[in-house]
Amino acid sequence: MSDASGPSRRVTVVVAEDQGMIRDAFARLLDLQPDVEVVARAEDGAEAMRLVERLRPDIVLTDIEMPGTSGLDLAEQVASADVPTRVVILTTFARPGYLRRALDAGVAGYVLKAAPVDELVSALRQVASGRRVVAPELAVMAWDAPVELTERERDVLRVVETGVPNREVAATLHLAEGTVRNYLSEAMQKLGARNRAEAAGKARERGLL
């Protein structure tokens, strides 16, 4: 993923990460690059979106799991907004479900936090020049995730994770209890789970929630 030449212009970046120490560390590392400028930092996706609309950076570099607006939510918002910004996901989660959902959301880059900083910088340069970059080990992993849950099945499993009975799942989502059972049955079959709790656990582990 190396790109020795780099772009001829400066790449502007907004960094979105809810953990302050990690956010500041990546911002400082990127600011050391002669052709990268961190123009703002955000602690969640909602703040990042406001900054993107105001500053219109080349890239928003974001974690996936953040309170409120997640990195995947942010990617969808950026894709539907009238901005030139492209999204690069930087995450600790090597989960195929997350990658597939990220690509569906229009993410232009997907890199693991454990990657060397030069790989991250190279990814930013390539994305800024119009290319899509996915860490090779993650690209291979995406083909190992045949499970596709519907949005409603994911909604049901997210509530199931809290441990409430089906009637409360139904009340929370404004569904009939029988409809909830049907969604759970479909999800359990797709995930090869023996019960609803196992289905929720498997979906979370695979990055499908």
Automatic annotation (TrEMBL):
Top-level division of the source organism's lineage: Bacteria
Pfam hit, one: GerE
Taxonomic lineage: Bacteria, Bacillati, Actinomycetota, Actinomycetes, Micrococcales
Entry protein name: Response regulator transcription factor
CDD domains cross-referenced by the UniProt entry: LuxR_C_like
Modified sites of kind 4-aspartylphosphate: D63
Gene3D superfamilies: 3.40.50.2300
Organism whose genome encodes this protein: Phycicoccus avicenniae
Alphabetical UniProt keywords: DNA-binding, Phosphoprotein
